[in-house]
Design brief:
The chain is of the alpha+beta class and 381 residues long. The chain is built from 10 helices and 10 strands. It has 3 domains: 114 residues, Butyryl-Coa Dehydrogenase, subunit A, domain 1; 109 residues, Beta Barrel (Butyryl-CoA Dehydrogenase, subunit A, domain 2); 148 residues, Butyryl-CoA Dehydrogenase, subunit A, domain 3 (Up-down Bundle), CATH 1.20.140. A 4-stranded mixed beta sheet has the order 1-4-5-8. A 4-stranded antiparallel beta sheet has the order 2-3-7-6, with no helix packed on it. The chain is globular. The structure holds flavin-adenine dinucleotide.
Length: 381
């Protein structure tokens, strides 16, 4: 078993870490404070091949492997959780899905633009009553004159503010749940989309989240993948998405350790740096260990995905472990900084809010445990 990055993966990782430090990190606080979508940072990221990381070069992507993609998201998240998740949505949930299931016209129209960073993608699966129970789609798509009329409301659509295209899931056979959902590629300038900006997100602010009301008519060409087979496609996309969210969580957790370490070395109590106290050292040791363990699961899941294997189980384990390890690391960092962290505007305060979302979006921790339990218990009974 070889547990080392290839020289190519190492040098890509280093170049993205440098980009994250120099271009992304200086913007992170302002993105959080303003809640404004960081379109300029995404444009700069496009110049580094970060908007179509795993998309083949034939479609203008960077053609990199999945491990490299996870490493890139981790490095970006260490600087800004918002930029990392915006990248993961357009990469995993839109571009990769089109590369996987799109027909040539979809790829010509959208994949090239997404991969070059000329277009941002959004993914609209969740509804008020279809979050964990995502098959409970109330958005409907009804046949009408060589196309479909799609009506319904989607909630919490990340990137919606800046997106040129959105993958919309709708019931084509209502009542059949996962067997009757179809995916549609809908340009965001299609008449009949009403955008409702959400400015109420606790963390990952600046993600351009919106609720979207649809009453649109689209042609048959808008159907992505087979009719009524949209739900398995959504789950396929979420496999990659969850690996990216695991990587995002790792980056946030590492940033929390960075902050805690720097503070512990300089803050003195009783005449010595708090880093000299075992109580503080053990918190840092636990965070480092838990994040390292979660990184192994994340890279294992990314490697499986890169080999085109089914990686749903591995992705669920990676997301669960990384999001919970990162949550704990942010919590410990808050404890180490104490009042210096527990104030609006501190970096640790932002990380504390940002990390919480990694246990919620792209499937809650409970949803990941359901996937893991189904496999673990599969052999019983
Ligand atoms: C910042 C942010 C960005 C998002 N971006 C997107 C996006 O781009 N596209 C998109 O489609 N969605 C997006 N979402 C929505 C997200 O995917 C959902 O919030 C998530 O899937 C959970 O759904 P819910 O909020 O409706 O919670 P619910 O499904 O109502 O769950 C409530 C609680 O019950 C638990 N629960 C539910 N069912 C079970 C069960 N059977 N067993 C045990 N526990 C259970 C859940 O784990 C949770 O703890 C985003 C959400 C956030 C917060």
């Amino acid at each position: 078993m070889i547990l080392e990055l290839t020289p190519e993966q190492e040098s890509f990782k280093r170049s993205i870490e440098e980009f994250a430090r120099e271009v992304v990190a200086p913007r992170a606080a302002a993105i959080d404070e303003s809640g404004a979508f960081p379109a300029d940072v995404l444009r700069a990221a496009a110049g580094r091949g970060l908007l179509g990381v795993t998309i083949p070069t034939a479609w203008d992507g960077a053609g990199r492997d999945y491990v490299s993609y996870a490493l890139a998201i981790e490095a970006i998240a260490r600087a800004s959780a918002t930029v990392a998740v915006a990248l993961s949505v357009t990469n995993s949930l839109v571009a990769e899905l089109i590369a996987h299931a799109g027909r040539a016209p979809h790829k010509e129209r959208w994949l090239r633009r997404l991969a070059r960073g000329e277009a941002i993608g959004a993914f609209a699966l969740s509804e008020a009553d279809a979050g964990t129970d995502a098959a409970n789609q109330q958005t409907k798509a009804v046949r009408s004159h060589g196309g479909y009329r799609v009506t319904g409301r989607k909630v919490w659509v990340a990137n919606a503010e800046a997106a040129a295209v959105v993958v919309v899931f709708a019931a084509t056979r209502p009542g059949l749940r996962a067997q009757g959902v179809t995916a549609f590629l809908v340009p965001m300038d299609t008449p009949g989309i009403t955008r409702r900006a959400r400015n109420d997100s606790l963390g990952v602010r600046g993600l351009g989240c919106m609720d979207l009301d649809f009453d649109v008519t689209v042609e048959d060409e808008a159907v992505l993948g087979p009719v009524d087979q949209g739900f398995p496609l959504a789950m396929w996309a979420l496999e990659g998405g969850r690996i990216a969210i695991a990587a995002q969580a790792l980056g946030i957790g590492e940033a929390a350790v960075d902050e805690a370490l720097a503070y512990a070395k300089t803050r003195e109590t009783f005449g010595q740096p708090i880093a000299t106290y075992q109580a503080i050292q053990w918190m840092l040791a636990d965070s480092a260990t838990e994040l390292a363990a979660a990184r192994m699961l994340t890279l294992k899941a990314a490697a499986a995905k890169g080999r085109q294997e089914k990686a749903g189980f591995e992705a669920a384990m990676a997301k669960l472990a990384a999001s919970e390890a990162a949550h704990k690391a942010a919590d410990k960092a808050m404890q180490i900084l104490a009042s210096a962290g527990y104030r609006r505007g501190s970096v640790v305060e932002r990380l504390f809010r940002d990390v919480r979302a990694t246990e919620i979006y792209q499937g809650t921790s409970e949803a990941q445990r359901m996937i893991i339990a189904a496999k673990v218990l599969g052999g019983i009974g």
